[in-house]
TrEMBL record:
Source species, domain of life: Eukaryota
Organism field: Adineta steineri
GO MF term (any one): nucleotidyltransferase activity
Protein name according to UniProt: NAD(+)--protein-arginine ADP-ribosyltransferase
InterPro entries in the record: ADP-ribosyltransferase_ARG, Ankyrin_rpt
Amino acid sequence: MSLLKTEENNQIEKYINLENNIKTIDRLSSDGQVALHVASFRGHSEIVQFFLTDSAFTSLATISSQLTLFDISKWAEIQRLVITASNLHDFREEIPDNNYIVWSIDGESLIRKGREFREQIDLYKTYDNQHHSITKLLIEIVEYYLNEYLTEQERFSSTKIDEVKRCFRDAIDEQNYLKYFIKAYTLTNSFHRVLNKHLALYILHYFDARPYSSTPAEYRLINCLAHIVTLLINHPDVRQHKYIGLTYRGMLMSPNDLKPYRIGHYILNKSFISTSKNREVAQMYAGSGQESVLGVISTQHDPLEVPVIFKFIIKHDDTGIDIEYMSMVEDEEEVLILPFSVFQVKDRIENGSNTGSPGLIEIELEQCEDNEQINNEKSQKTYNLHNFQEEIPDNNYIIWSICDDNLIKKGEEFREQIDLYKAYDNQHHLITKLLIEIVEYYLNEYLIQQERFPRDQIEKIRDCFTKAIEEQNYLKYFIQAYTFTDSFHRVLNKHLALYILHYFDAQSYSSTPAEYRLINCLVHIVTLLTNHPDIHKYKYKGITYRGLLMKKSDLKPYHIGNYILNKSFISTSKDPAVARMYAGSGQENVLGGLSNHHDPSEVPVILKFTIKQDDTGVDIEHMSMVEDEEEVLILPFSVFQVKDRIEYGSDTDWPGLIEIDLEQCEDNEQVNNKKSKSK
């Protein structure tokens, strides 16, 4: 009996021969119609539902004959069934085409991650196709990743699973993993998309002992992913197919996804990247070629997305594999870039309307020669990994604000959508559950894995949230956590600024389980504070100040009359002298110790906030871990209007200082009335 004997087939296959049934479905009748077409045309939605139990659906021609109202309703139902089944098996909607490259990292740890990955897979370097351990690893991939995980978690059809599984079986039988993995990878759209999604989401967990061993299922998944990658990287024949030179990749990307691709930035890919030696192929995938392959799925793409061509310069033997003659799609001249390759952005060109490719963005990525070169270049920067001063500039919490016409609607939506917290009870079990989720996911997983927080800081912050649960006092202990270290409040505000608006976008909010959990945690953190029953005891009305250094370009939204809505917390002080010190214009400049982190073009700024409403400012002076700053915390989604702006000259006590007066809007109606008059 084969070691790879599968489970019993599904219930339908017990009663009929599905393979023959598929042939029946696709068989042409005398008038040239296929069975599925006939069933749909006649309005037999029950039969269509049966036909779509597997991948045996055929494209439906447009029906031009006259339809009754009843026919139209049946036809709409059939269209819905076809679209649902197509999405289920195709995964285009679920896994956007550009995510494998969006899911890369450009932080300081990318070199270390790549080195760790190579070091931790040394056991594969004595690779022998005939060794029984290779067979065992492949059997585990088949039994768990294909038979269980893809079937149960990703809803892969039995037909597609069988196609992929056949490749891995052949790899065992013929002792040639390289050949048959490439065949599986290029066999269907679904497998390579889902594999890359899983690599992007989970492969970094391989380096973190806690989540790696958190559950047997996650442990097996991460192991399977590591096997898939490392069996290919260390295959004895992989160097026969090495590729050094130029390759291209085309796709559609949103402006937000393009942000990391700035000249000088380093990129490490966590998943496989399919590229082509032929630039024209890449242009078609970017939607800018003569025969755009994206034309048939254009409805899947956001109109804000722009065509992008990535030009990869591959320099190392162990990075690119020329799979043109192994691929199931030979005409794409494909080169596969392996995970954990490091590239630097060398150039970025945006083609104008007067060019041959209007709107196209070209990004040149050159592979790094060696880790030492990168580390030498980066070591020249005065960067503090745990302080995040370079990564998260001090003024970003206010730069990440919005001042367009939507800000009132956003504020209203946020308040309306968190009504469930208004019946807040510290002792309610729901509050405890939300706090546990913040600890388990946001602190224990996200901050450690994505932000590289040191464990000693995580433990201190976690202690605060644990005490909040035990003593049923979130207000007190959140403020302690927020003011305990410099890093936590900076990173929390960065995440609020980047992701909190996704809460109002159903597609972003539910795009991946990881992003869904992150956004939920951020919402819990804010709303548990906003609706805390004791918060009114600490309400603050009056004038507060915030000092910071800002670039002139960041000051542009602060015109007199403009409205500002903050997406994150704002730390202010009742004492203007404290604000002046943070702006670098006080007698005791607290920024003096880290002046190397600031651009010489930055100017000192004092923001003067006039708070008028009860639910905006929280006086945390006696709860804060830094009492002498007389701190008032302004809550997210507060709306202010710029009332005045003063620039001090060289003949004043504060030469070069800019003071901006921000007054809170009394109500949304006032803001809307003023906006309507200005139009």
